[in-house]
Amino acid sequence: MLGVIEVNKDCYDPLKVSVGPYHHGKPELKEMENIKLMMARQFVQQSEELVEDLHDKVTEVSNEAGQYYAEDSTEGLEDEQFTQMMFLDGRFILRFIFCLLRMTILTRMDE
Fold this sequence. Notes:
Layout: H1 2-7, H2 9-12, H3 31-46, H4 51-66, H5 79-110
């Protein structure tokens, strides 16, 4: 299976955005980090929960979440860095989905 992944590596490597530890911190994906941060902030602003409460929820599950990744994929990430990454990426994904759904609804309303 790993041989197939290596042959098709371009199919798995992100072009614009990194989510999770596998490609975290790669320089070619750094530009998108600012956009992720902006979208994550928008998510928190529209949430009824405090950012600290949301962060605490991620902290509660981050150790377990880290166990689902390949052993060496989280090397170099301290526990708090991993938690911060999961917190930012999770909020980014939720905001991205929200924006896609909203665009779809608005497009349907325009039709």
